[in-house]
Amino acid sequence: MKPSKYPGCSGTRNLADNLSDLKAQVAANQRGIQLVSELIEEYSLEVVQAYMSHIQKNAELAVRDMLKEIARNAIAKTGSAVLKATEYMDNGTPIVLTVTLDKDRGSAVCDFTGTGVEVWGNLNAPRAITLSALIYCLRCMVGHDVPLNQGCLNPVRVVIPTGSLLDPSERAAVVGGNVLTSQRIVDVVLKAFQVCAASQGCMNNLTLGEESWGYYETVAGGSGAGPGWHGSGGVHTHMTNTRITDVEIVETRYPLLVWSFSLRAGSGGRGQWNGGDGVTRELVFRRTVQLSVLTERRAFQPYGMNGGEPGARGLNLLQRTDGRLINLGGKSSVEAYPGDKYIMNSPGGGGYGRPSDVTDTNKENDNKYSEFLERGSVYEYRSAQEGV
Fold it and tell me: Angle at CA 241, nearest 5°, toward 181 and 327?
């Protein structure tokens, strides 16, 4: 493939930066090899391999215990060990999940049959993305401190229709699947298990640049509330593994000003426990740049749970110097000129439980499954990060 053959495309904007990134990846792998080799040298290959197996078996047992508990609770409350949920991408494509639990074996079949077909655009997600999102959700739900490993998925059989959004053809564009569809898969898994309200469901991707440089940032939003906790405002949710660049660095290195960056008051869904607020981020450009946004939850709001209200949907705006205010939609690429202002309003998280000022008219549906207490290794890691 030669990207430069296609209009508007090039192999790279900055070859030196790309090579440095590759060297950093090679160095990280070499460091990993070094550390594993030191373990083997100190404890022997047999011992290291044995403990690798122990870690996977421990993770498998933890997930099986969790699935047994969820199955028993579901049967007690609904008479069935089958959990179902459907979420829609902003373009209308459904992500459908049916979870069939075995209360005796502690296993599950996660069947995505019914999910929409491969889409025109880059929101397609390779099968590995779905597996990664699923293992993340399992680690969030499990009641033990479980290191990330394949053992978490041993009790789970995953069914994904070939040719669907979650298992597209080899020629399908997939960059948005990694940063957007992955978040929406988490939404549908947590919804099926009735764990908590939806978080922002998006990484709010923004890219801008010229022929010689490019800048990429992900913007925080609101996290969903759950039984016993309010959602957090202005955070990167789930498995984004990203943090935004400091304002001082952005304004020093690039031709733009961070006009404002604040919480978006009232954007979190109300509930007994409220969803976290999204953010408002405004950038003013000092030179002509190509501005691209790749976002979700601009059409459908992040759901609330057990009577909680949904979070506010996001909104991408471009304000021209003549005062015109333009809605860019969820996915767009436009030329921005000096003095133009880009305004991102990121989604809020959904609320959990009925707000105290709302009349209780349908209480029997408020607690379809047992309440979930926030716990597990991902929770412990996030708490440690937020405490820094």
Answer: 50
Distance CA 264, CA 280 (A): 5
Confidence of residue 6 (pLDDT cuts 50, 70, 90): confident
How many Cα neighbours within 13 Å face the side chain of 239? 24
230 close to 223: Cβ distance less than 8 angstroms: no
Give the 3-state secondary structure percentages of the chain, helix then strand then coil, rounded to 5. 30, 20, 45
How long a stretch of residues is the chain? 388
**Helix 182-192 / helix 127-141 crossing angle, nearest 10 deg:** 40
Model pLDDT for residues 204-234, shown as the tens digit of each residue: 999 999 988 889 999 999 999 999 999 999 9
Burial bucket for residue 173 (CB in 10 Å: 0-12, 13-18, 19+): middle
Q: How far apart are CA 304 and CA 321, in angstroms?
A: 38
The structure tokens listed for 120 are 């025109």
Upper half-sphere CA count for residue 286 (Cβ side, 13 Å): 10
Q: How confident is the model at residue 387 (pLDDT cuts 50, 70, 90)?
A: low
Judge contact between 197 and 352, C-beta under 8 A.
yes
Alpha-carbon distance of 315 to 267, in angstroms, equals 11
* Token pair for 32: 């990993």
Q: Say whether pLDDT at 118 is over 70.
A: yes
